Amino acid sequence: MQQQDPIQHAAFPSYPRELSWLDFNGRVLQEAADERNPAIERLRFLGIYSNNMDEFFRVRVADVKRRILLKKYQSSEQEDAEALLQQIQQQVLHLGQRFNAIYFDIQLELRKHNIELIDHFKLTERQSDWVKHYFRQDVLKHISPMILSGDEVKLTKALEDNTTYLMVEMTGNSKPEYAIVQVPTNELSRFIELPLDLNTRKKNGHYRRQILLLDDVIVHCIADLFTGFFQFEQIQAYSLKLTRDAEYNISDNLDQSLIDKMSKGIRQRLQSEPVRLVYDAAMPEQMLKVLNKLLGTSSNDSLVSGGRYRNFKDFINFPNFGHSSLEFPRFSPLASAEFERHATSFDAINYSDILLHYPYHSFGYFTEWVRQASFDPKVSHIKITMYRVAKHSRVIHSLLDAVRNGKKVSVVMELKARFDEENNISWARKMTEGGIQVVFGLTSLKVHAKLCLITRQEKGKAIQYGHIGTGNFNEKTALIYTDFSLFTCHPEITTELEQVFEFIEHSYRPYIFKHLIVSPTWARPKLLQLIQREIDFALAGKKAEIFLKVNNLADEEIVNLLYRASQAGVKIRLIVRGMCSLIAGLADESSNIKVISILDRFLEHARVYVFHNGGETDVYLSSADWMTRNIDQRVEVGVPIVNPRLKQQILDILDIQWRDNVKARIIAAGHDNAYVKRGNKRKIRSQQQIYNYLARQARQQLDTETE
Q1: Candidate list 113, 220, 357, 448, residue with the active-site label
Q2: pTM of the model
Q3: 342 is catalytic
């Protein structure tokens, strides 16, 4: 019988998820600042930071702005969004200052390796001539200026989101003329290496490789662009970037009755207003006034001044112009002994459940499984969910091959995967044309689960083979995201997988899930029950533990229950990569909770839930973070690990991560991202140690087979 929990608390502390997210991006900046990382990789971390910040404004800040705009329609109990926005702006400013200092340090480091990022002011005469020739031959054909004169100019609608622009001012005898020039980074590389023979030779005889940004090529030749069309004595150009609200359908996040109350004008503003304008701090005040007027920016918009260059996200792909030591060493994925020792993927899965851990293992085992299914005479049906898909997807090409081989193929394609909508729509069209049954899921729920179910006829029976994972079926991200993939043919699991696919198409039918944790509807009561069970063990004086690894932890009900679990004596360890609204280590509320975050070469993306369960440890892999959207507003699936060897492997990997003393940060009330102190302990960099651990396991399996 469940015991009554005597612990009650009126209001547990909570850290705003927006500020917690900025703390996470501060950890990305730490990686850029970390001199233990190769110089080119440090520069790329600046690109990751910039890309993250773009998404933060498009999603998180846009949501805060909506709350401000809707303030008069909401109750007085709503969070003070204006105060939160001010805190966000202060923290963004602080991070921006750190960013600029780190960028300067990285440039100095690159110079030591004979790589120099220069601007057009540093060009020699010979280099200037080359740049002008390059501009005329390669750049000019991709530029079509937008002239900012007349009332018909609608700059807010004309500027594309998160695209690099130059604002141009031409002055002379008449009033100033203004124009906008888009930097064509979709057509040309943003990083232009000047010919070596034009560079200055160093004393040791080596050339310094000099890199000019495409932005500076255009600025250097800006007069040539407008001469003959405008009369001017002076011309100058400064960079800018606009960030928009990423929410295409506000009704997903707002109560319909509230939307009905709003005026048409308010609804339009919710959907179209910019949320951030970033511009070169050297831009003259008058030019900035003109820009603000044309954009209609308000006091609630984030106006951020910075250095010469915008859209640092392009630096994610900064080329290595120097020695290979300036990048992380090449990484060779491990072979899977379970798959390698069998003739087919189906034989391997039929023999035993298989667990892969990307990128330590090759994603090729999954694509090979689907490829084999595409022509296997015994396979009759393939079902799969798609959320983020590679632009050149071998998985989808195999599904198209399967249709050509007479297989029935069903794909649940999520068209609302944020920032991947265009790519997914394109693939959906190609698959439909190729004969695949494309299902677009539920109107109000994103399908975020990572599922594949293959039906095979064996000895007159239909046998199902399933995959449940924590990451997308994406060949590109599988190289840089850490994720788990479970392959199984246990009928109790595959039967419920079939029900998940049925639920996506027929959500009105009743379903029962005894093994899988399925969002929405079934996940919240299950998770609360698992946490409460540990509380009951603790109150009974028994050992009680929860070990959780997620990307984000921000659901209020679950966070409050974790606080109560801590008060009851449950020992809780959390590895949270990103947002964490729970505050660990507080004397009264969370003294039994410890939280760390790991950032390193690979993006930690796996979600794992572990409950001690009186010694009968439960381990789940899931696609879902512990956020309200994942639990209540998406289709997500978690799977229990029943194979003792695989369960121990996951626990070992989590233990390695918990002992990380190189790349782990402590997440506590101070929000200072302090590194875990190493002391006299041996150095443990968990991502490298996990690779070594899995390599040892693979060798042991092979040795066992050969004995």
Answers
A1: 448
A2: 0.90
A3: no
